[in-house]
Amino acid sequence: MTDDDTLVPPGYVDNLFDLAGRVAIVTGAASGLGAAIATGFGQLGVHVVIIDIDTAGAQRVCRTINASGGTGEILTLNVSDKKQCDSAAKDLQHRLGHIDILVNSAGSAHRSPAEDFPEAQFDRIIELNLKGTYIPCQSFGSVMLEQGRGNIINMGSIGSYVAYPWASAYLASKGGVLQLTRALALEWRDRGVRVNAIGPTLMESPLTTNARHSTSVTSDFIEQRMIRKRSGLPRELIGAAVFLASDASQLVTGHMSVSYTHLTLPTNREV
Q1: Helix and strand tally (H, E) in the chain?
Q2: Does residue 12 carry a catalytic annotation?
Q3: By residue range, what is the domain housing residue 125?
C-alpha cells in the first residue's frame, strides 16, 4: 500500500454521500423546503417519514417519492407535543429498526412591527419554530442516542444571524434554533449524534409567499442586501441536506450552513 493509499484508501469516496437504506424523518415536509429535502432523500434510496399536519400535501409528496422509486410514509402529528413525538419515535423504532436522519423543517412566520406584534402570533411562531424543533430533537434524538448514531438537521435562517424589520418573533425563534443546534451538538458530541442546521435566506416557498402577501417590508430589506439578486429554490437546499446527513460530514457538528444568497454586512449608517 502506498502513502497515497493510506491517506485516502481506494474506494473511500465512493460511498461518502450514499444514503441508501437509511431512515429519515422530515417535519414540515408537505410543502416548501421540507418537501424538497424529503423528495431528494427519496431519490437517493432513503425511506422518508413525512410529518405534517397538511395531510393532502403530505400525500402528494409521498406519491412523488414512491413514483421516483423511493419509499415514503406519512405521520400526522403536532411536532410541539412531547407525548405525540415520543409515541411516534417508539413506533418507528419498533417498525423500522432504526432512525438515521431527522430534518426539522416545520415552521411559520408573521410580519408586523414589533410594537404591534400580536401576542398570539408570537406564541404560535415560538411554539412551532423553536419548541417544534426542540421536541423532535428530544424524542427522535433519544432513539439515535440509544443507537449510538444519527444525524439531525435543523432549519435555521439567515435570520439566525442577521436582523431585519417586521420579523421579531421569527428572528427570536430562529436565533433560538441556532443556539439549540449548538447546545445539542455539544452535549451529544461523544455519543454518535451530530446536530447541524441549514440557514437559508429568501426562498421560493409558501412561507415566504404568504409573508409577502401581508407586507414587502421584510423581503425588500433583505433583497437589497443579497449578494446574489434572486431568491433560492427549495431544491437548491437538497445538496446541503445530503452533505449533513451523510458520512461526508463526519467532522461537522454544531454548524449552520448559510445559503449562498446571504446578506452583506451593514454599513455604519445601518442598524
Answers
A1: 10, 7
A2: no
A3: 19-258
C-alpha cell recorded at residue 260: 449562498
Choosing from 12, 134, 161, 170, which is the catalytic residue?
Answer: 170
Whether 59 maps to a domain, the answer reads yes
The span from the CA of 62 to the CA of 74, in Å, is: 7
In a domain? residue 131: yes
268 domain-assigned: no
**pLDDT tens, N- to C-terminus, the chain (271 residues):** 555 667 898 999 999 999 999 999 999 999 999 999 999 999 999 999 999 999 999 999 999 999 999 999 999 999 999 999 999 999 999 999 999 999 999 999 998 999 999 999 999 999 999 999 999 999 999 999 999 999 999 999 988 988 888 999 999 999 999 999 999 999 999 999 999 999 997 788 766 665 555 556 666 776 666 666 777 899 999 999 999 999 999 999 999 987 644 444 444 444 4
Length of the chain measured in residues: 271
3-state secondary structure of 48: strand
**Is residue 13 included in any domain, yes or no?**
no
- 195 is written with which cell numbers? 446536530
Say which residue the cell 446578506 belongs to: 263
Question: Are the C-beta atoms of residues 39 and 62 closer than 8 Å to each other?
Answer: no
Cβ–Cβ under 8 Å, residues 165 and 224: no
